[in-house]
Design a protein that fits this description.
The structure is a homodimer.
Chain A: H1 19-33, H2 38-45, H3 49-56, H4 64-73, H5 78-92
């Protein structure tokens, strides 16, 4: 594809976080904000404790069905969780507010 | 869990669409809006044509890495795709603007 981030700028390109990592962090912070344990939420979601733990740590991709179950156990709609994940990822991808020196235009003599 | 949607109202509960189905539809509409073929986008994303086709039809869960590749091939950030999916899912989950008759309070004699 032609519209890739220019090669010589790649060192400034923000590293896009993996979806499963961001998703896991949002799910974990939701659970902790409710003061609930992995054991409680995994029981409510009918997933194994080990699986939920791996999803929260971004080590396993959650299937659509199991993600739905986890969200129901946390009593939040999946669309809300996706919005949170989207917001977090867009912040990482946002334009930096300072310009590195070697990106500034070089004055021609 | 205690805060489930009440059993006797379940026939009015909107069916929550599966994430992979919504995601597939957003990816497909993006590709079509760019006038590109499955072949072109799968080549750019370095995924097989069959795999991309299955993801678009919501028949396969895309891993975080492959989803990232597909988004790069479509030149849209993943967070934007997630926002779209979230918006679509929240519309389906929104409160209906009419109240079914048997949900209206029954006047006591």
């Amino acid at each position: 594809m032609e519209n890739k981030y220019p090669e010589h700028l790649s060192k400034y390109a923000p590293v896009t976080p993996l979806l499963r990592v961001e998703l896991g962090e949002v799910l974990r912070s939701l659970r902790l904000s409710q003061g609930r344990t992995l054991r409680e939420v995994s029981a409510d979601a009918q997933v194994s404790l080990g699986y939920l733990s791996e999803v929260e740590r971004g080590q396993k991709e959650a299937s659509s069905e199991l993600l739905q179950s986890i969200c129901e156990a946390l009593a939040v709609p999946l669309w809300w969780v996706l919005r949170e994940v989207s917001d977090r990822m867009s912040l990482v991808n946002s334009v930096p507010d300072t310009v590195p020196d070697d990106l500034l235009p070089v004055p021609t003599a």
